[in-house]
DNA sequence: CGCGTCCGTCCCACATCATGGAACGATAGT
DNA sequence: ACTATCGTTCCATGATGTGGGACGGACGCG
């Protein structure tokens, strides 16, 4: 099989297994081994193994009783997660842009992963580039960011173990490392609806964070505005926090509508 | 790597590539090769190849400019198709059950694939088992079934080439093999809203088929009631056809709501 | 009731093909 | 300009995926 072309680096088992997955998912019904073999024109043993492997990975499900294969839990989960995240970014962007235009500061969008926040989007003002302390895909500890605090505040008890981390790393001199203090702050955040962090993640930079809740009240993401400390006077902070809350609320609403 | 256990028949490249896919899809942002490597703890070269392969298969997309990988077109297509089909079955079932209870005949659900109809669900009455001439997953030519005619009638011009098939296979003595006659029948179906087929697919068996349309009017599926010819007198046929149309309409409505 | 067919599973010898360490070139950050 | 990092390429190695074939159980037909 010498397929001349730049398409080197192709791993055939993977490629063929994806064909199998594709076939299974495109049928509206559970399929049998022989049926799949007949359609894809691959050796029976090979397809059998792929089916087994895909089943083990939960990308497809093996109905033992009828010996048929259908789309699996993991595949559907993945699709749902992806759809959710994609929807989130699309819906959040115009709101983020508006905030950037209003305050001329950087606006971040992040989700929680383990005990860290992961930035999934970020918009910066054209002027006043304060240099991005965060990049898309970068991770920061939850406890040292307003993003993290905002989400933690609305986590159900079960998931709140984020705060029970063994050690709270000291990022800057101001980072909270005491679990009790953090817990009290988070309680405040829950009441106020927004979180503030001043120089706890990076010297001279402060952030205001608000959670983005889904229909059930679960914090699927958070949005923050980050600016140099001296530029954010107390009253401006209040104004920004309110604007963030309004924007987050709007995103939540759109999110709920899209999920229906 | 001797993982003792019944989990033989596992193809590692496939398994590992699925891990990569899983990782990429679960991040809300496009990821880099190194990032993925660091997370999955697999050799860089290996992950690189999987990323290439998955990209070639369009399951993930390679943003050449930024050298980042994100979820691909094919994956999203698959997810959408699967979601649609699953939703269809779930929504259609109660309606189908009601029809079975009312008429005590077999009710089928099918989609169009090329120029054939594929049965994706089927409900039979408890008594009067007339023997199933069709099975879930089985295919029949579109032109010899009421299912096929019902869908063809609402196909947009572009897709209607189904009828331009080189030859219309003769299934029974009554099967229509003349394209012009078929076209005229299909025109009638479009006006009436339901299709009838008598012994054209199997001797002594007749079917009444109705299309299930999505929000744009595209026939995503069709539903039919099939019964022995002699049992279906003309007036009963009318009654059944109306019931089928009502049920299909209800399914269409629910489908539209779910897709929003 | 016994026949034949079809389908899923298992086996095994072979060589292909995935593997991953290492080196290279490009790019960006300082 | 220098260095760290990242993506890409190369290559020797043998592990592992491969697929033809056989086995046995389940239907379905006569």
Keyphrases for this structure?
homodimer; 260 residues; alpha+beta; Arc Repressor Mutant, subunit A; Beta-Lactamase; 2 domains; two-stranded antiparallel ribbon; 7 helices; 8 strands; elongated; disordered N terminus; DNA-binding
Explain this structure:
The structure is a homodimer of 260-residue chains. By secondary structure, chain A is α+β, with helices and mostly antiparallel strands. Chain A folds into two domains: 12-71, Orthogonal Bundle (Arc Repressor Mutant, subunit A); 77-259, GAF domain (Beta-Lactamase). Helices cover 44% and strands 19% of the residues of chain A. Chain A has helices at residues 12-26, 33-40, 44-56, 73-103, 146-152, 179-192, 234-259; strands at 60-63, 68-71, 106-113, 116-123, 139-141, 195-198, 205-213, 219-228. In chain A, the strands form two sheets. In chain A, strands 5-4-3-8-7-6 form a six-stranded antiparallel sheet, with helices on both faces. A two-stranded antiparallel ribbon of chain A has the order 1-2. The radius of gyration of chain A is 24 Å and the shape is elongated. The N and C termini of chain A lie far apart (48 Å). Chains A and B meet through helix 1, helix 3, helix 4 and strand 4 of A and helix 1, helix 3, helix 4 and strand 4 of B. Chain B binds a DNA duplex (30 and 30 nucleotides) through helix 3.
């Amino acid at each position: 099989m010498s397929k001349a072309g730049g398409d080197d680096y192709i791993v055939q088992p993977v490629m063929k297994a994806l064909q199998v997955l594709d076939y299974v998912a495109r049928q509206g019904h559970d399929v049998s081994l022989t049926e799949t073999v007949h359609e894809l024109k691959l050796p029976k043993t090979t397809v059998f193994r792929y089916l087994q492997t895909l089943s083990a990975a939960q990308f497809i499900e093996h109905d033992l009783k009828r010996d048929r294969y259908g789309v699996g839990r993991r595949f559907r989960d993945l699709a749902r997660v992806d759809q959710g995240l994609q929807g989130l970014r699309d819906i959040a962007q115009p709101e983020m842009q508006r905030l950037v235009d209003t305050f001329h500061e950087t606006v971040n969008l992040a989700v929680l992963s383990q005990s860290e926040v992961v930035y999934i989007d970020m918009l910066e003002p054209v002027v006043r580039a304060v240099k991005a302390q965060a990049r898309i895909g970068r991770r920061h500890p939850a406890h040292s960011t307003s993003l993290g605090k905002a989400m933690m505040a609305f986590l159900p008890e079960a998931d709140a173990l984020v705060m029970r981390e063994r050690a709270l790393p000291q990022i800057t001199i101001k980072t909270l490392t005491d679990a009790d203090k953090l817990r009290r702050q988070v309680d405040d955040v829950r009441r106020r609806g927004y979180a503030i962090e001043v120089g706890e993640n990076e010297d001279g930079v402060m952030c205001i964070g608000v959670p983005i809740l889904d229909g059930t009240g679960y914090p699927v993401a958070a949005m923050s505005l980050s600016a140099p400390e001296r530029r954010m006077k107390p009253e401006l902070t209040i104004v920004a926090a309110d604007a963030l809350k309004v924007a987050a609320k709007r995103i939540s609403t759109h999110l709920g509508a899209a999920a229906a």
